[in-house]
Amino acid sequence: MRPSRLACFVFFVLFVRFVAAVAVVEAQVRPDLEWRTLDSPHFRVHFSPGLAPLAARTVRHAEEAYQRLAEVLTPPRGMIDIVVADNVDYANGYANIFPTNRIVIYARPPMEELTLRNHEDWNRVLITHELTHIFHLDRAKGWWGFAQRVFGRAAPLFPNAYAPAWIIEGLAVQFESRFTPAGRLNGTEFPAFVRAAALNDALPSLDALSLASPRFPGANVAYLYGAYAMDHRGPLELRTYVELASGRIFPWRHDANAKAAFGETFTRQWEKWRDSVMRASVEARSDDSDARELTRHKFEALYPRFTSDTTL
Fold first, then answer.
1. 43 membership: H or E segment, kind and range
2. Fewer Cβ atoms within 10 A, N terminus or C terminus of the chain?
3. What phi and psi, each to the nearest 5 degrees, are found at residue 302?
4. Mean local confidence (pLDDT), 129-145
5. What three-state secondary structure class fits 95?
């Protein structure tokens, strides 16, 4: 019997996803250092000797975040490895779920990152954010869970990993803001970015929330607007959404999952949110009659340029 066109299409999508996932290489940590490990009930934290104080903070914050997240979402399977590294000159972190659950945290504080630097404890925020990814992406039910039992933790077999960046990052920003006194939704930058975009009639559509956006605020578009797309949801609603998405045979039915969990599709929710923000911006414009726009240039200028022999 010949396979159906739908089955061929699904196989092709999964194959492309597998190839793409294998091709992604994150910034690597140094294997030549003397690595040590701190063990806790749910984590193994690996660090080089000079990072022992930060590793101890990381263990404490990770266990606190685990307990809070486990009250809402299904805990991930097995121990989670966290590597605390200091081999790059920027602040960042990332989470991965295959072949095992693991997180890498870079030790450099985020002094150059506007949306992260002015917060109570950047390590606590970062750990909570990345651990949310592990809780979210590790979950696999139904056909996906059966396939993992047969084939193992292969990259294409994690249904939530097929979600767009604004769902994955938006959910993580939501929990970092709920479970820490900092978090980007509790700061001033994200709300200011939204107000500025509304005042300039530049609020993006839902399908434009990409990590590769060339518009201000760049990759933060997915974090910023994704967090607002997930906003005002109760713990039970968020858990229901993740559980539904973890068991769908076709994992890209995001509007259907939102409809079942929240009562409205993401598309309809986004339209209503944009309308409300735009109405507020119209009222703000009426109060800013003395405001004068100074520039329409790019959001970051690194070097001055001469426009003539004598003018900078």
1. strand 43-47
2. N
3. -95, -35
4. 97
5. strand
CA dihedral 135, 137, 140, 143 (to 10 degrees): 170
- Rounded to two decimals, the pTM is 0.83
Q: Are 142 and 247 in contact (CB under 8 A)?
A: yes
Residue 230: φ, ψ to 5°: -95, 5
Distance, CA of 261 to chain centre: 20
How many Å apart are CA 168 and CA 133, to the nearest integer?
7
Amino acid present at 270: W
Q: Using CA atoms, how far apart are residues 299 and 306, in angstroms rounded to an integer?
A: 19
pLDDT tens track for 236-257: 999 999 999 999 999 999 999 9
Contact 229, 270 (CB under 8 A): yes
Q: Please say whether the dihedral angle defined by the alpha carbons of residues 75, 76, 81 and 84, taken in this order, is positive or negative.
A: negative
Average pLDDT over the chain, rounded to an integer: 86
C-alpha distances in Å from residue 27, one per residue of 120, 155, 216, 237: 26, 18, 25, 35
Helix (H, G, I), strand (E, B) or coil at 48: coil
Contacting residues for 141 by C-beta, under 8 A, at least 6 apart: 243, 246, 247
Predicted confidence (pLDDT) per residue in 82-122, tens digit: 999 998 888 889 999 999 999 999 998 887 776 676 666 88
Q: Do 96 and 41 contact (CB within 8 A), yes or no?
A: no
Among residues 180, 52, 55, the alpha carbon closest in space to that of 126 is found at: 180
- Tokens found for residue 201: 């009639």
pLDDT tens digits along 39-78:
999 999 999 989 999 999 999 999 999 999 999 999 999 9
